[in-house]
Design goal:
binds pyridoxal-5'-phosphate, Aspartate Aminotransferase, domain 2, Aspartate Aminotransferase, domain 1, 7-stranded mixed sheet, alpha/beta, 3 domains
Length: 478
Amino acid sequence: MNNSRRKTTITHDDTTIAATSTSSSSSSCSSSLRMSSTSATTKDLISPDDIYDNAGYEDDIAKMFDDNVFKTYGRYPLSFVSGSGTTLTSTTGRTYLDFVSGISTCILGHGDVGLAKAVSTQISQLHHVSNLYLIPQQGKLASWLVANSVADKVFFCNSGAEANEAAIKLARRHASDNDITHPVIICAEQGFHGRTLAALSATGQPKYHRGFGYGGEMVRGFEHVPYNDMDALKNMVEEINVTPKDIKDEGGKRGVAAIFLEPLQGEGGVIPGSAAYFKLARELCDSNNAFLMCDEVQVGMGRSGSLWGHEKLDVKPDVFTSAKALGGGVPIGACMARGEAANVLGPGEHGSTYGGNPLACAAGLEVASRLSAPGFLEGVSRLGERLKSGLESIANDYPGVIGEVRGWGLLLGAEVKDGCGTIAGDLVGDAMEAGLLLVTAGANTVRFVPPLIVKEEELDEALAIFRDVVATRAKSLQ
Ligand SMILES: Cc1ncc(COP(=O)(O)O)c(C=O)c1O
């Protein structure tokens, strides 16, 4: 029995209504309401516990999703109740090795004591105010980001897409300040930048655009070129620099606002950028008064073995974005900028209610201090080498199934050979059956993204499972 007695005072059309109600989970989900006036209606809410019990969802989580949740994801029929380090425990009590980490997010793994303490301490003290005020935790996290990167200033938000929206606005604003009425941001084919409309328009994968256009068009001002193709990039810049007649006739000017790239394409198939390509992108931005912007949402925050993916390419972006690992699984995003880019947006020109609140920043600060431990990033590189050479050995032994092994640090992909009779999703499914969680990247790559605190023996265990999975498939394909 869950009895509760609530009293609510509501002001409606000059009539003050005192509504008193009693609800009981054993009777019905809806409850009665007595009012002193008939001019307004209100009723008590159904408590989550009542719904959960009464609809029988406790035994059927899939049905609860089916009945109530947008079908925006293809989900595995699997739920977890707890986690510890690299291990997740399902509702059925089975344990899994987690080489997904919430897709490159939980870098400290699960059930991390330091993260739990930082967040619980902060939430009991002060979790949210507003950016109307100075938030010390936000200032401190921004200082850490600035101290450990080329950035001079940081804007905080909640997700990767939102961080990228900030970058896009910043680039457009800078172009506008330089009399470009039609700013173009050059992005890469197979890139991924998020699901909000502008970030999605920057995303160079038409399958994600389908049905979201206006007259078939997404947000304008984005052009896509093949990743790592230097000639295509040069040609695109030249093309954009010629303002079409209709724009010119209206007194407008087209120009390159930014080149916006992932240092390593994650969703696109774990494809590292080439240093020569990024050097060219830097030069083109310099000669066109445009910004080089890097999306570090997946590869950043230590996953590559460097704090930022662009460091691997020895290039300095004007703007770069982060999210995912920044809070270790607590939602937070950041758009960082250096030099001129750091001062483009002024008061009132961008914002986010939750952005950089004390709770999210407390999580970010814990992640930051753990990444700053001497030798931590070196450890990521070392573990990454171990995983990579294990995957290469599997590729070597089963060349009919596994092709190239790519990636940096603990963001690795094993390419599944085209036309071999199996696809990346099959191997991910087989691995899950065997107790190892993996995720696909693009159409034909299996992605390995364990927490950065993964142990050597866990890498070896994962490799052994994956080897078995590949061997079984190879045998069945003979
Ligand atoms: C490179 C990159 N950018 C942006 C995003 C979008 O991040 P979010 O889902 O937090 O909006 C993702 C998500 O996978 C990503 O991998």
